[in-house]
Design goal:
Largest sheet of chain A: 10 strands, mixed
CATH architecture of chain A: 3-Layer(aba) Sandwich
Shape of chain B: globular
Largest interface: A-B, 67 and 70 residues
CATH topology of chain A: Peroxisomal Thiolase, Chain A, domain 1
Number of domains of chain B: 2
Number of strands of chain A: 15
Number of helices of chain B: 11
Helix content of chain B: 25-40%
Distance between the termini of chain A: 16 Å
Order of helices and strands of chain B: EHHEHHHEHEHEEHEHEHHEE
Number of domains of chain A: 1
CATH superfamily of chain A: Thiolase/Chalcone synthase
CATH class of the largest domain in chain B: Alpha Beta
Number of helices of chain A: 12
Mean pLDDT of chain B: 95
CATH topology of the largest domain in chain B: Peroxisomal Thiolase, Chain A, domain 1
Radius of gyration of chain B: 19 Å
Largest sheet of chain B: 10 strands, mixed
Mean pLDDT of chain A: 95
Strand order of the largest sheet of chain B: 3-2-4-5-1-6-10-9-7-8
CATH superfamily of the largest domain in chain B: Thiolase/Chalcone synthase
Structural class of chain B: alpha/beta
CATH class of chain A: Alpha Beta
Strand order of the largest sheet of chain A: 5-4-6-8-1-9-15-14-10-11
Radius of gyration of chain A: 19 Å
Structural class of chain A: alpha/beta
Oligomer: heterodimer
Helix content of chain A: 25-40%
Low-confidence stretches of chain B: none
Chain lengths: ~375, ~290
């Protein structure tokens, strides 16, 4: 890919708040804000941690639907302001939306008193992107990805691809997943939620901690500032080993990473750091670690995981973690991996446990999900 | 974008998914014990499309859908909110609609790009835009590309959404697929254009200035109203109209049925398919059958 595609604007709302500078400062300081949520709907007598969005300052009680759209549109409007888009540039945006839960958080409370609500009221996966386009009076296309935890990472790949091919001018890429009981109880049914804080790659890791959040990016051939990151390449491939886990040897994960590097036109030795998917689940960390070892072998760059700060924001994590990672680098550091204490010999991956100083570089970001989806992105802010 | 094979599977609503399992068993020995209706429906069409074709390991899968796995989502929410139980693990996993594109890939042991995608009323068309971009970039060389939806509408929801009488439309479920390659050798047709417009009048202006190989067939998506059809008819001299919704009935990925129905029915002809979404965005597909 010869022409650069910049992250011209960005905004995020996560468990650490919606002020990006404060969020990055909290990450640097190793601060987290996590909530114990009881599993009361199943009359269970225990709780699990969840990275919920901080309570807002609004005194007005809001319906779930109003809250859903407030979070979404506030984040998007901040990203547009950050990119300093003119009104005609906003109208030309194509919308790329990635989510696991889509509009389920809007409707699911209604299930307390009703049944078949979604079938009666939801108007399809494309509805939220359509609402975004209506709100912004956008005159271009909408593209919604439902590939589980890689959803918004796929949004980034396809948006960048469409810009590079000249089919669209610029893109708004949104990753959004609000708290949903479907996800909370569903992941607990799979015994994937950790009873303790998330500890990616640690020998004693016990699982994931889910989070909610919204991230929005403006991808554009033009940049806002010389420090803006740009997309170099990416890959999406399918691991058909199992619908829930990847090949333990990490073969397809390694293939995704190699294809992303090839697409970006960089060698593995040129990667300065890796943002791993690093969910803290036994299988994900094992397969990802084995895949990384296949590619980087004896030249492993610093590895970090961001889920201990904001939780696993499922389909939204593609955009949210891309923003958090690149903004941390723009603040001159790679975040530490909270919670990691003891190396797991079965994986042999030792993520960084203190922030590492860095100003510029070329970086690999990994995302994996149910349905065998393997996504790797390469971004840079070098020269 | 060269079309090498197609399948057009449509069915009245099916209560017992064994019907789909039996159909799939005609094409593959793989057993899909944990698959739900949406997954099986996806597999029926994909298997029919891939049958007899040499599907390469790096083939991509693009599954477009309006509603995806609504059935299991309802089941899981019912388990949580009404039975006060944890969901069954495979019910929960199947709420993620990309399990269907996963099983399609697994059944053919293909490891290429894999997405499940949606775009309100234009899922099939916008998905083709993504595939065109990937083919242009060379990251995909061939793809199984499907449009799949179950029957999901209540009368109220249908009439609210489309502002049309429910009784005028018989609902079906469908899974219609194309095998698309960058290579044109032995192709049976091609998608020669995917054009997007902000209004129907812009669309008509563009169509007026195109030269199509004849005979030319016109077809329309669900939201093109009679006045708009009249505008298009005036703009484009044509030999016939192909009303696939009347003929095959309606499901939310009906465009997929229209395109594959054209390929099935016509030889040496061009299809101009016009569809729009609720925002008035129009997408025109031009398909040639050799």
């Amino acid at each position: 890919m010869s022409d650069r595609i910049y992250i011209r604007g960005k905004a995020v709302n996560c468990a650490l708040g919606d002020d990006i500078e404060r969020v990055v400062a909290s990450i640097k300081a190793g601060q987290v804000q996590v909530t114990d949520v009881p599993l009361s709907l199943t009359d269970s007598n225990y709780s699990r941690q969840y990275f919920l969005l901080p309570p807002s300052d609004s005194d007005q009680p809001r319906s779930r639907e109003t809250y859903y759209y407030d979070v979404l549109f506030n984040t998007i409007e901040k990203a547009i302001a950050d990119a300093d888009l003119k009104s005609h540039e906003i109208r030309e945006l194509s919308v790329f939306f990635g989510s696991t839960s889509n509009d389920i958080p809007i409707y699911e409370d209604t299930y307390k008193t009703s049944r078949q609500v979604l079938s009666q009221t939801s108007s399809g996966y494309g509805n939220i992107a359509n609402e975004i386009a209506n709100r912004l009076k956008i005159k271009a296309g909408c593209y919604t990805f439902t590939t589980a935890c890689t959803s918004s990472a796929n949004g980034v790949i396809f948006a960048a691809g469409m810009i590079a091919q000249g089919f669209i001018k610029r893109a708004l890429v949104v990753g959004y997943d609000l708290f949903s009981n479907l996800g909370f109880y569903g992941f607990e049914s799979l015994k994937l939620i950790s009873p303790s804080p998330c500890k990616p790659f640690d020998k004693n890791r016990e699982g994931i901690v889910i989070g909610e959040g919204c991230g929005a990016l403006i991808l554009d051939p033009k940049n806002s500032t010389p420090k803006d990151f740009y997309y170099l390449g990416g890959a999406n491939i399918c691991d058909t080993y199992s619908v829930t886990t990847h090949n333990p040897e990490g073969d397809q994960i390694a293939t995704a990473i190699r294809e992303a590097l090839a697409c970006a036109g960089v060698e593995s030795r040129q990667i300065d750091a890796i943002k791993a998917h690093a969910t803290g689940s036994y299988h994900n960390d094992l397969t990802e670690g084995n895949g990384l070892n296949q590619v980087f072998n004896n030249h492993m760059p610093p590895i970090t995981g961001l889920k201990p700060f904001v939780g696993h924001t499922v389909g939204a994590c593609g955009v949210i973690e891309l923003i958090l990672f690149t903004e941390a680098v723009k603040s001159d550091f790679i975040p530490a991996t909270l919670g990691f204490e003891e190396i797991d010999d079965a994986i042999n991956i030792e993520p960084i446990t203190r922030p590492v100083s860095i100003q510029t570089g070329t970086f690999l970001l990994n995302y994996f999900g149910f349905g065998g989806n393997c996504v790797s992105l390469v971004v840079s802010n070098k020269g | 974008m060269y079309i090498h094979n197609y399948s057009r599977f449509v069915s009245p609503p099916v209560d017992d998914i064994k019907v789909y399992k039996q159909e799939i068993s005609r094409y593959t020995d793989v057993k899909f014990r944990r698959a739900n209706k949406f997954v099986l429906l996806s597999l029926v069409g994909a298997c029919q499309c891939a049958y007899g074709q040499a599907i390469k390991t790096d083939t991509a899968v693009y599954l477009t859908t309006e509603n995806g796995n609504l059935g299991d989502t309802e089941t899981v929410l019912d388990q949580i909110y009404h039975k006060h139980e944890f969901p069954m693990p495979y019910n929960f996993i199947n709420t993620m609609s990309n399990t269907a594109s996963f099983y399609v890939a697994q059944s053919f042991d293909i490891l290429g790009r894999n997405i499940t995608f949606s775009s309100k009323q234009l899922s099939f068309e916008r998905g083709l835009e993504l595939l065109r971009s990937d083919l242009g970039a060379g990251v995909v060389k061939e793809a199984l590309f499907g449009g799949v939806d179950e029957v999901s509408f209540s009368k109220t929801q249908f009439e609210t959404k489309f502002n049309r009488p429910y009784s005028d439309f018989e609902m079906i479920e469908g899974s219609c697929w194309l095998l698309i390659k960058a290579d044109n050798s032995d192709a049976l047709g091609e998608i020669t254009a995917i054009e997007s417009f902000g209004s129907l009048s812009q669309t008509a202006d563009w169509l007026k200035h195109q030269r199509f190989k004849r005979p030319l067939i016109l077809s329309y998506g669900m939201l093109i109203d009679p006045d708009q059809k009249a505008t298009i008819v005036q703009a484009v001299p044509h030999e016939a109209e192909f009303d696939y919704i009347s003929e095959y009935r309606y499901f939310d990925s009906a465009t997929a049925c229209g395109i594959t129905g054209f390929l099935e029915r016509y030889e040496d002809a061009t299809l101009v398919h016009i569809n729009q979404d609720f925002r008035g965005q129009v997408v025109v597909l031009i398909v040639q059958k050799y």
